[in-house]
Structure formats: structure tokens, C-alpha cells
Amino acid sequence: MAVLSSAPLQFVASIPLATRVITAATIAFSLLYYFLRWTGYEAASLSWLVLIPGSSIFYPWTFLTSAFVETTIIELIFTLIVIPPSLRYLERLWGAIETAKFVAVTITVSNIIAFGLCWLEYVVLGLPSILYEQAYHGQMALQIGVLVAFTQIIPEHQVQLFGVLKARVKTLPMAYVTFSTVMCLVGFQCPFIVIQFGWLVSYLWLRFYKKNSESLSGGPAYGDRSETFAFVNWFPPLIHVPILLLSNTAYTLASRFHLIPTGNIDAEAGGYSQLPGGARAEAERRRAMALKALDQRVASGASSPAPPQRAPNGSAPTSSRPGPSSLSEAPTPSPNSADSVPKKSSDSGQEGR
């Protein structure tokens, strides 16, 4: 009995600090919301608990704490399945402080953008329902932020969804953003719009502002300036040119006004800072870059095949890469080469005599 009773405590103690606090806050705030709704409180009267653009301006803490409120049991279960294991993985790589900063920035800035968007819509459309009938809540911004972080750390890792679908980690964030776009177009702006804001905020934080432990050249470094984590790689190649122009312009302006920390990384030279977490994360990054280089080399080799080479004995020319015809048709032996085998054996027999 003592073993059974101590097992849950040991499991809780094994969870890193930041993950433990965020998980406990999610459960506590969600249960408090359920209790208040059960006792008769309306959602609009809980502006001190969830983010309501028209009234939560007097409760600024809701820009952060509203994310810990899941308004339905299904949302709470999904969050508890996804977020704690993900944060536990990230915290072991980054540490408690950087993980807590990542969570706070992703949630708070996303809610501030959503808050400003609602007031802008109210000024343009003049509908009071935009301010007082929408309650932003939940951890959708953090969910997309975690996917962006995994795309940075293990982009080529393959996961299996629902036991059927297989996908690489780097394709999941844009799939979630696409889902958010569809939900917004059909009229569910709240709270699905924060998925798009969370994707952008988390990417900018990891790209430019997150402080790493040590860089390859020594000393502190900020962000991840590697080519594999460039902003243009989130989009299909068809629109790379306008996206690249837009991102370069924004980067130039941000650098001119000193909005981006420089650290000691030369982005123009293609350098990048080593990911915290030891050799495993660094090896995964180098593996991803090697796979990308290998794909480009194979593609360039396929476009310019090597010329055929003739064997030294004068037989048919051989190719270094089999084509479709060589796979479907077996080569016919030459008569001269077939006759040469018994002739050689007979000569060796005469020499033996």
C-alpha cells in the first residue's frame, strides 16, 4: 500500500517545475470556472477570469490567466493530453526560466493582438457584440507555439496521428493554422484567431529573442538564425518570392530600429546558434540540414545524368544509374563472350595435360 500511495507523488515530483505549475494552474482555473458557471454566473460577468475585450481592460492579468481556463471538459482533457508532455520535453532542453518565458510571451502577446483586433473591428463595424459577447480563453496559442518549437528542434521527426495519419513535425503548425483560418472564415473568430497569432509570436520569439545557453562561437546568443528555420520555409515554393521580399523588408526595418537583439551570430554568413539541450538536439538539427542537402543533390543529379561508360572487354556500355528499360528488359549475352568461356576452359585443359 505504501508503494501504491507513493507512486503518484513520485510521478508529480518527476515533472519539471514550470510544467507542474502551468498544469496545476490550468486545472485550478478551469475547475473554478466550472464551479462559477454551475452556481449561476454568466460568462459575460467573468471578465476577471476570461478575456472579454469590452471589460477585461480593467483586469489586465486576464491577458495571461485566461489561457488557463478551458470552458469545456473536452477542451480541458485535450489540453492536459497535449501540453504537459510537450512542456516537459521543452523544459528539459531549455530550463524552467526559458520555458516559462516562452509560455508567457506566446499567450500574453497573442491575447493582446486579439484584444486590439476586436477593438479595431468595433470601431469599423460598430457592433457592441464584438466587445462583450466574445470571451477569449484556452491554450490554443500555446498549442501552436509548442508545434513551432518542435519544428525548430526535431523538424524531420515523424509522428502518427490517431493511429492512422503519418506526418512530419514540420508540417503540423501550418496544418493547425489552416484549420484556424477555416474556422474564422465560417464565423468562429473567437477563440480560433489566437492560433494564427500564437504561430507568429512563438516563431518570432524563437527566431530572434529566445536566449540560448551558449553559441558555437562562445558567449550568449539569441534566437535561431539558421536557414532551415527561415520564415519563408513555412510557405509553399510558389509564393516564396513575395514572402521573402516581405520578410527581408521587415527584418531590415527591425534591425534599423534595434528591435532585434544581435547577439554574436552573423546571419549573413549562415551561422546559427547551437540549440540548448546537448548533443541530441544538435544532432537532430544537423541531420535535418544533411537530409535537405542530400535531397537537393539527388534532384540536381537526376536532372543531369552521367554519360554511359564502356566496359574494358568491349561489351555493351553500362550506366551508373539503371533506367526504366534496364529494369524491364534483361541484357542479352553477346555470342563472342559466351563462346569465350568454354574456349578458355579447353585451353586450360590442354595446358593441364
Written account of the structure:
It is built from 13 helices and 4 strands. It is mostly helical.
Distance between the termini: 91 Å
**DSSP strand tally:** 4
Give the averaged pLDDT, no decimals. 78
Radius of gyration computed on alpha carbons:
30 Å
Question: How are helices and strands ordered from N to C?
Answer: HHHHHHHEEHHEEHHHH
Q: State the low-pLDDT regions, or none.
A: 215-220, 264-280, 316-353
Helical content (DSSP H or I, runs of 4+)? 55-70%
Structural class: mainly alpha
Q: Helical segment tally?
A: 13
Task: Report strand order across the widest sheet.
Answer: 1-2
Strand content: under 5%
Shape: globular
Describe the structure using short key phrases.
two-stranded antiparallel sheet; 13 helices; disordered C terminus
Summarize the structure.
The chain has helices at residues 2-14, 17-38, 62-65, 73-94, 96-125, 129-132, 140-153, 172-185, 189-209, 240-256, 279-303, 324-328, 335-352, and strands spanning 158-161, 165-168, 211-212, 221-222. With 353 residues, it is mainly α.
List the helices and strands and how they pair.
Blueprint: H1 2-14, H2 17-38, H3 62-65, H4 73-94, H5 96-125, H6 129-132, H7 140-153, E1 158-161, E2 165-168, H8 172-185, H9 189-209, E3 211-212, E4 221-222, H10 240-256, H11 279-303, H12 324-328, H13 335-352
Antiparallel strand pairs: 1-2, 3-4
